[in-house]
């Protein structure tokens, strides 16, 4: 639909180059803008007929009585993407306007197309940002957001990863970083959040985590934008946990190693968790590491750490053979991906156990 502001701009710009009066009407025949101000906000019956039939009409002095609110001239439909969005009327005789009318119609449609396309692009950008904001809020998705997702053809399917990009202020590309990075990543299922000056988050879905990491590294090496820091959050499998993916991406930035541009939360999880102490993230961390361990294995792990990883003392405390203890420790490694006999793995497992027990660090 034509807006009054756009109609006024069309009249102003066209009449700078046209020696005849121009009217711009909506699809009801209402005059939105005119070189003759007294005609604005009145019904133009000729324009209403054009809007109804989609066909141009010429109005002469002899046929004026048939078209109340009209003057001699031509009324032409204005289309946008094959849809009639308004009508333009040029005052004059058919002899005067026969050659110029099609050019005015074409110029008007070009102006309408540019304006509506810009408005449509802006709406889509805003809609994407609103969808992203709600998905990372942790609240249930509203009906309005589901409608926006439908219009934007967004169909979410796990896994989900959040990537946050910090761009250099000196080389910042306003409103273009999202498009540039989405193209650089080579991933179609990307939803950008709001661009806060030089920081922009992205939700990526349906793509394996390792592929996301490789594409981020590829995008960082490309020329065109200077990237200061990239935070890659944890990958989650269900839509309800996207908020955790977002929070972990923020922590990946906040607790990143100083001289590393790409900060992966999975690589600095301990560092971030110790600094953050956020209950939802802790619960997710504990579940990931300890969720598959039964009570016997948990007790074995607790005793093993209480005995400072001393095999014989742990066996004596549990009343089991050393070989049985070795089997249990090997089983813990298989279920958690962490070997409790190795220092780095033991730290992560013990920290998870402390969190599970409710200890504050």
From TrEMBL:
Residues 142-254 form the CdaR GGDEF-like domain. Residues 297-354 form the PucR C-terminal helix-turn-helix domain. It comes from the Bacteria. InterPro entries: CdaR-like_regulators, CdaR_GGDEF, Diacid_rec, PucR_C-HTH_dom, PucR_C-HTH_sf. Residues 2-134 form the Putative sugar diacid recognition domain. Belongs to the CdaR family. This is Helix-turn-helix domain-containing protein. It comes from Sporosarcina gallistercoris.
């Amino acid at each position: 639909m034509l807006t009054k502001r756009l109609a006024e701009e069309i009249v102003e710009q066209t009449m700078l180059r046209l020696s005849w009066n121009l009217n711009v009407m909506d699809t009801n025949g209402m005059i939105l803008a005119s070189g003759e101000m007294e005609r604005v906000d009145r019904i133009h019956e000729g324009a209403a007929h054009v809007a109804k039939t989609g066909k141009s009409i010429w109005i002469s002095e002899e046929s004026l009585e048939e078209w109340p609110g009209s003057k001699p001239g031509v009324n032409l439909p204005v289309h946008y993407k094959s849809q009639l969005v308004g009508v333009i009327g040029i005052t004059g005789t058919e002899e005067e306007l026969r050659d110029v009318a099609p050019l005015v119609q074409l110029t008007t449609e070009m102006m309408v197309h540019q304006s509506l396309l810009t408005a449509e692009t802006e709406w889509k950008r805003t809609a994407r940002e609103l969808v992203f904001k709600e998905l990372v809020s942790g609240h249930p998705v509203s009906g309005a957001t589901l409608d926006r997702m439908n219009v934007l053809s967004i169909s979410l399917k796990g896994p989900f990863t959040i990537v946050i990009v910090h761009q250099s202020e000196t080389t910042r590309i306003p409103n273009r970083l999202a498009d540039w990075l989405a193209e650089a990543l080579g991933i179609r299922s990307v939803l950008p959040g709001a661009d806060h000056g030089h920081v922009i988050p992205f939700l990526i879905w349906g793509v394996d985590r390792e592929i996301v990491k490789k594409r981020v590294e590829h995008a960082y090496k490309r020329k065109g934008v200077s990237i200061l820091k990239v935070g890659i959050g944890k990958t989650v499998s269900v839509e309800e946990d996207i908020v955790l993916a977002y929070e972990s991406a923020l922590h990946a930035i906040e607790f990143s190693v100083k001289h590393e541009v790409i900060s992966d939360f999975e690589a600095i999880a301990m560092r971030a968790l110790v600094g953050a102490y956020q209950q939802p993230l802790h619960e997710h961390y504990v579940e990931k590491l300890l969720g598959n361990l039964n009570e016997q294995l948990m007790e074995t792990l607790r005793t093993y750490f209480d005995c400072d990883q001393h095999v014989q003392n742990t066996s004596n405390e549990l009343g089991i053979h050393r070989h049985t203890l070795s089997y249990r420790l090997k089983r813990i490694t298989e279920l958690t991906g962490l070997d409790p006999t190795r220092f780095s793995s033991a730290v992560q497992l013990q920290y998870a156990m402390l969190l599970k027990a409710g200890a504050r660090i």
